[in-house]
Amino acid sequence: MTRTRLTAEERQEQLIAAAVTAFSQNGYAGTTTDQVARLAGVSQPYVIRLFRTKQELFLAAVQHAGDRIEAKWREAAERDPTLAGLGDAYGELLQQPELVTMLLHGFAAAGDPAIGDPVRACFGGLYEVVRELTGATAIEARDFFAHGMLLTCLGAMRVLGPGAVPPQPWSVDLLGAFEGLDEKVAFKGHDKKV
Fold it and tell me: Can you give the residue range of the structural domain that contains 180?
């Protein structure tokens, strides 16, 4: 059996994917570079050689999540350059709970100045992309992000999306207020009647 050797870029992508998984499960403080290395199937010194510090690896994972969202929105805008079109695309991203949970961990760690500036730049970049792609006003973009953040939090709590816990009356009520939210996304695998 012949093993295919990964390029440095492919190995870096593999490490970032492992970092997204690890950090989304345990947060910044609760994750070690050794855990990421084990998930990626490499040595811990190799992780440090590529990223120098856990902080740099964490920021790469946050940026990866932001880049994935931006790419999804740009792809969606080619078909439907509206807030609704971008919202539908974000609904698809909610099916990847590690991705949105990674962003939440980035926001939570933003009190650290070395982490905060890049995380704020990532979020600000997403805001600007939404306005650019849709022509939304500042108020429309604010409302779009407010709804998106609520869905992100609900996804991170596993109230919606893959692995969703059984719905509670409050979650049925809250999610029912989202006009156009695909019920398959919101209540995947559950009878929503409570």
Answer: 158-194
